[in-house]
Design brief:
Elements (H helix, E strand, L loop, with lengths): L1 H38 L4 H15 L2 H13 L5 H23 L5 H15 L4 H30 L2 H9 L4 H15 L2 H13 L5 H22 L5 H21 L3 H8 L6 H20 L3 H11 L23 H32 L2 H26 L8 H36 L7 H27 L2 H30 L3 H5 L1 H19 L2 H7 L10 H4 L4
Helix pairs in contact: 1-2, 1-3, 1-6, 2-4, 3-4, 3-10, 3-11, 4-9, 4-11, 4-13, 4-14, 5-6, 6-9, 8-9, 8-10, 9-10, 9-13, 10-11, 10-13, 11-13, 11-14, 15-16, 15-17, 15-18, 16-17, 17-21, 18-19, 18-21, 19-21, 19-22
Amino acid sequence: MKHLLNLLAAVALLVWGTHLVRTGVLRVFGANLRRVLVHSMRNRFTAALSGIGVTALVQSSTATSLMTSSFVGQGLVTLPAALAVMRGADVGTALMSVLFSTDLSWLSPLFIFVGVVLFITRSSTAAGRVGRVLIGLGLMLLALQLVVEATGPLFSSPAMRAVLASISSDVLLEITIGAGLAILAYSSLAVVLLVAAMASSNVVPLDVALGLVLGANLGSGLLAVLTTAKSAVSVRQVTVGNLLFKLLGVAIAAPFVGLYLRTARPYVTDATQLVVLYHLAFNVIVSIGFIGLTSRVAKIVSQLLPVPPEPTATRRPQHLDPSALSTPSLAISNAAREALHQADVVETMLIGVLNVIRHNDVRLAAELRKLDDTVDELYSAIKYYMTKISREALGEEESRRWTDIISFTINMEQIGDIIERVIIDIEDKKIRPQRNFSEAGMNEIVELHQRLVANLRLSMSVFLNGNVRDAQKLLEEKARFRDLERAYANTHLGRLSDRTASSMATSSLHIDLISDLKRINSHICSIAYPILESAGALAPTRMRESRLSTLE
């Protein structure tokens, strides 16, 4: 029992080390990896090379698959180019397995020591995030040593050898077990390294080990399909196409396992090297042999999974892609784009309010109130999506962006609620009683409304670009709007003193309306505070003008 627990702990440590490397690299290079993938897809060969490089960094072809799928879902790349990236991603994983199979045990304590020092002393900096990657690499190397030490006593028992002997002649069972292990471990790389370590300890025969390796390759494709099962069809097309390539490759390679052993054994005596070189040879041959089929497979996948046409009236970008959650920097960008869509809906509501006031349009009022339900749904969807983003994989700047997005969506949701209440008041106090504002009062409302729409658009620019000057302008507009609201409230009281009939009939609505517009403006302008605070341009009670003058 003790030996089994030692093996399970070593496997868990291997998987955890792989996770630390993947999340650490994404935290350091996430946005850059995105750009590399997008810009390298001019042709299938450069796309495959980028897949090799990115996968070698993140230690996971599954992570690369999810990243690439997201780009297809957003319309940034074509399906054939994405499938070409995946051909390179599999080679990248195989190259890393060859590297880790060499005797790098002396690097394990060095990586862990240096990594821990960097992570503890500079956790919020780039050096600290590099330290996290080094810790993961050190743990992976340490885990491989522990696997070798634990497998010897465990698998020397007669019972375990009998179990292993039962699968030694069944290639399909070996492939199935290997695929299951890859799915459970969430990493084909970890499974290949584990199988190589077991083969070196004579725990499993070499032919069984190679069958498990084929299964691990198939399992990585299945894992990506399962991960994107609830994503849009365009996203799932990438993972299904990649799985088709893997199925075809495994089907072709399985009968030739014995031929590989007979050919390679005279030249490679080490069992570990035989396993990882087989993994590399399989992926290189499959990638080179199938890269010319990417367009054809893309057509087959498009026929198997056709993208359903959307009605023109409801067509809009869907940015909250679940498959992007494994790449936090990409998920943050998706959430920001969806937050801007939420702001677009709020802008539509805000612009429509003036038409309702001017023309007593009951039908438009009902449509605008329904839009508030859309705003609320978007807020809930964005909030839920953001809670699923791994905060530990976010850098300092991305963590601030995470907070900014949440704050922005909350403000938009509250603005939508205020607009809905304003519309209800207009229906109850103006449209049904058939009352009208005085000419002067209507001009005041139009002036405030125009400023409000302009401020909303400026706030969207501040949220998108984080420009400090624009944020300063937004706060200055807050002060101007407040002064204007006070002045218009006083002029309205003056009209009441003059006994203006229309002003007296709509007095309650007029005062409430300009007060609600001021509240909307406050929510809009609050978007500037995080930008100014992060720039160090906001004092406890006022903006530091001297500081702002030095910022661009």
